[in-house]
Amino acid sequence: MPGYNRHRIFNYIIFFAIVFVLYYKNIFSFTPGMLLAIGLGFYIGTEFLTPDLDTNSTAYKRWGRLKILMLPYKWLFTHRKSSHDILYGAIVRILYISVIILGFYYLIFKSLPQELDLSPVYGIIFLFGIISANALHVILDKIM
Ligand SMILES: [Zn+2]
User: Fold this and answer.
1) 51 to each of 4, 36, 43, 103, 142, how far by Cα in Å?
2) Which residues, at least 6 apart from 91, have a Cβ–Cβ distance to it below 8 Å?
3) Cα–Cα distance between 86 and 77 in angstroms, integer?
4) 140 Cα to the center of ligand 1, angstroms
5) Region class of 24: left (phi > 0), else alpha (psi between -120 and 50), else beta
6) Angle, CA of 90, 96 and 100, to the nearest 5°
7) CA of 117 relative to ligand 1 center, distance in Å
8) CA of 139 relative to ligand 1 center, distance in Å
9) Whether residue 12 has pLDDT greater than 80
10) If you compute the radius of gyration of the chain from its CA atoms, what whole number of angstroms results?
11) How far out from the chain centre does Cα 75 lie?
12) Of 12, 46, 94, 101, which has fewest CB within 10 angstroms of its CB?
């Protein structure tokens, strides 16, 4: 089973290789905003919202004091079962953290955000970054 750092190295090598090939082969040209959105999503997906939040992993411990927020997730999901589904696992984690963020937002502002001043394209690219990082994690788990 690959460890936390092996997952990180694998993810970043694949990410940079794909971005490099897409850019230099003129297959896809990223605007700086798109690159930032996918890079941020990929970083969060690699470092914090990984499939290994379902166990007492380094990724789980990286949450520091906030790891208490991930405790229900850890209790709900058996290690390497549905949390390690290539698509479903990432979507569940995104929904899980979204509910927590919206909950805190509601506690602070006593209402939910009405609209985001962010282009939906960047939001989709950001989510794609998280989902891609999770997919690479699952792929490495399956091949090693
Ligand atoms: Zn894993």
Assistant:
1) 11, 23, 14, 22, 13
2) 131
3) 15
4) 8
5) alpha
6) 145
7) 35
8) 9
9) yes
10) 16
11) 19
12) 101
49 neighbors 97 (Cβ within 8 angstroms):
yes
Closest CA to 51 of 87, 9, 12, 13: 87
Cβ atoms of 51 and 82 within 8 Å: the answer is no
* 117 phi and psi angles, rounded to 5 deg: -85, 35
Amino acid at 129: G
Half-sphere exposure of residue 61, counting CA atoms within 13 Å on the CB side?
4
Q: Read off the tokens for 26.
A: 């003129």
Which of 131, 143, 139 is CA-nearest to residue 46? 131
pTM assigned to the model: 0.88
Residue 69 has pLDDT above 90, yes or no: yes
Can you list the positions of beta strands (E) in the chain? none
Residue 99 Cα to ligand 1 midpoint, Å, equals: 23
pLDDT digits (tens, 9 = 90+) for 72-118: 999 998 878 888 999 999 999 999 999 999 999 899 988 887 776 77
Q: pLDDT band at 42, cuts 50/70/90?
A: very high
